[in-house]
Structure formats: C-alpha cells, structure tokens
Amino acid sequence: MLIDTDYIVSMTEANQNFSKVAKMVDQNGSVIIMKNNKPRYLVIEFSETGIMQAAADNDVLNISRKLIKKNKEAYEELAK
Fold this sequence. Notes:
Structural class: alpha+beta
CATH topology of the largest domain: YefM-like fold
Number of domains: 2
Radius of gyration: 20 Å
Oligomer: single chain
Strand content: 15-25%
Number of strands: 3
Shape: elongated
CATH class of the largest domain: Alpha Beta
Mean pLDDT: 85
C-alpha cells in the first residue's frame, strides 16, 4: 500500500475537524490517522470494504494453491 503523506492526519486534528477527514477520504479514498506518531486508524469509504474482503479471499486462495502445489506428494499420500 502506497501512502500519500498529504492524507495523514493526527488524532487531534481528526477529533477537531472530522469533516475535513471525510473530505480527504472523498478525494483520495482513504486517510490514515496517527496516534502517538504511529499509524493507528485507516478511514476508507464504506463501498471499499467489499473490495478489501474480496482481495483477502483471493490472497487466501492463492496461498492455498501454493501450499497444495508445494506439498502435492503429501496430499496424494493422505488421499490414499
């Protein structure tokens, strides 16, 4: 994930001016809120949550395929 520093705000700023954070999300798609100088929260558009879930599902599927391919002999033995 590439992070644009223009779309990082402090917790204090987010608390004091959340409408600004919402506008930033509308412009960029996401905003990172920092707490104690560390990334703590990611604010995204609600419509993006489905895309993120689909990506996670694809990651699991790809990892599963790699494990099956890597351990094909063991799976064949277990299938007997």
